[in-house]
Amino acid sequence: MIELHDLTKRYGKTLAVDRLSFTVPPGVVTGFLGPNGAGKSTTMRMILDLDRPTGGRVTIDGRRYGQLSEPLKKIGALLEAKAVHPGRTARDHLLWLAQSNRIPERRVDEVLGLVGLTPVARKRARGFSLGMGQRLGIASALLGDPEIVMFDEPVNGLDPEGILWIRNLMKRLAGEGRTVFVSSHLMSEMAVTADHLVVIGKGRLLADLPMSEFIRRNSRSAVRLRSPQPERLLDVLAGAGLRHEPGPDGSCEVVDGDLAALGELAASHGVVLHELSPQQASLEEAFMQMTADSVEYHAGDGPGRGAPGTSGAPGAPGAPGGGWGAGWKADGNRPPAAVRQEEN
Amino acid sequence: MASFPAILRSEWTKIRSVRSTVWTLALAFVVTVGIGALLSLLTNNNFTEFRRHDQSPFDATGTAFSGIMLGELAIIVFGVLAIGNEYSSGMIRATLAAVPQRGTLLAGKTVVLGALALAVSLVTAFVTFFVGQALLGSHSTSLSEPNVLRAVLGAALYLTMICLFSAGVTAMLHNQTLALGVLVPFFFLLSPILSAVPKVKTLAHYFPDYAGSRMLLVYEQNGQPYGPWAGFTICLAWTVAALVGGALVLKSRDA
Ligand SMILES: Nc1ncnc2c1ncn2[C@@H]1O[C@H](COP(=O)(O)OP(=O)(O)O)[C@@H](O)[C@H]1O
Ligand SMILES: [Mg+2]
């Protein structure tokens, strides 16, 4: 179990991580979601005690990382940047890691087999493709047979085959009862791998809830009604006992409403409708909505920043006030007091 | 706490599994022995001509060690690479994730690096000496002559300390290119130039290379400010200071 308490990191003027508190529960895949620059990698480096927090603390099963005597046996990590000397062979890289934590040498060959690198075990890392480098990083993470694994954007730049391999690996690891903590800037990636979801933006916690809950809240359908007689419309809806929420441009939205029934209801009361339309929000939209502030903030930071929905979220991205993320965000607390729900 | 022997084994694997570190050590041996041999041969063949204007006693040991400057360059590069390649490759993060006790880690690195540098330096020093004496023929000296054994051992200690000093400076700068850019001009331009400038040279006499190389002298030089063992102590102090500085930086810095 990884626990963060008010974890904060400042680099000069940049507040990379801002009073982050959450717990990574054991035995499930926890997705760590946020746009580029949200502070995911920084948080992970602080978990490993590589970067020193400006404030707050983070513990692994109640202990600081620096207090672990053979940490690779407890927590294995794949970090964002390559951490391999190009002139060293894959096997020698794993060997020095193993020796430092008194892990038997046969485990080196075991993990090489596990990630499919046995044929290139004695090749220098310099010639490795991105995918092979990633596999070597994962082999390092699994070396000590740790109960916690942490992967920073493991599928970045991989081909579909590699992506599938990593997804299955993470599920298998969680299935074995391990704690899996994986970051991504893609909602779509999280939706297929994570059981639990932690969302951050601009270094702040935006949401911490089970994936099923996130999906339930954000895949609701609704019917949008817009009328030149809004008060009458609301009276009619109230009279029919229908729960509704305000929509954009003075419209209102009936959650899980029935299109035909609502049309008939309006007609029977003589309410004029200018719009009667079904609304369906994707998870990507919900995520974009939630992190809109942090994306705007980073929009000018360089290529690759911004748009989290690189998988091509359908519909107008982040239409002002639209989408279900807005309603979702409104019915919880707004950040920084984040939406939160414990695993049940 | 991490197991110290485990750190030593791990660091040893790191050093031996990368070609560049192995090569620079081999180079230190080859250039020191080779240049010493060449100069010894030339000196023996042209002895009267070379010595015509020289009143001081002939230092057969010093002649054999004519290549020490280049050997020193190679061992500086070795010390820089052994520490610095972790930063240039980003591997330092893997290292610190495996051994988060940073002070202990640097101590382990220093022991492995120092032991290897000392072993190579000892072999280099004795081979250099014996090859040189063999080629100096009738002008040669032997280990039983006064101060000669101390000078040969001194050469080995000197190379080892310079190597560790460079390693410490690299840990302080956490960048191997920068470390080479500082150390090489310091040892091969600044220090020799300043030692020749009248007033400044008093200061330059306390630089690690000038101090450490006093150990190599069989005969006292004119105007020498202190003896060989004082020189050794000064050089050792520099080395310890660089390593402590490196440890402090490593401990305080984000990786
Ligand atoms: N070593 C560093 N020095 C200065 N700024 C940094 C450093 N690391 C990260 N940052 C800044 O902190 C913020 C968060 O970065 P990062 O943790 O890499 O985000 P993510 O992994 O979510 O994309 C960014 O604005 C980034 O520019
Ligand atoms: Mg990142």
TrEMBL record, chain A:
Top-rank taxon: Bacteria
Ranges where the record places region Disordered: 296-344
A GO molecular-function annotation: ATP binding
InterPro entries from the UniProt entry: AAA+_ATPase, ABC_transporter-like_ATP-bd, P-loop_NTPase
Keywords tagged on the record: ATP-binding, Nucleotide-binding, Transport
Keyword Nucleotide-binding listed: yes
Keyword Transport tagged: yes
SMART domains linked to this entry: AAA
Similarity annotation: Belongs to the ABC transporter superfamily.
Name of the protein described by the UniProt record: ABC transporter ATP-binding protein
UniProtKB/TrEMBL annotation, chain B:
Membrane as UniProt keyword: yes
Keywords assigned by UniProt, alphabetized: Membrane, Transmembrane, Transmembrane helix
Highest taxon in the source lineage: Bacteria
Stretches that traverse the bilayer: 21-42, 62-83, 111-136, 148-171, 178-197, 229-250
Protein name per Swiss-Prot or TrEMBL: ABC transporter
Species name: Kitasatospora aureofaciens (Streptomyces aureofaciens)
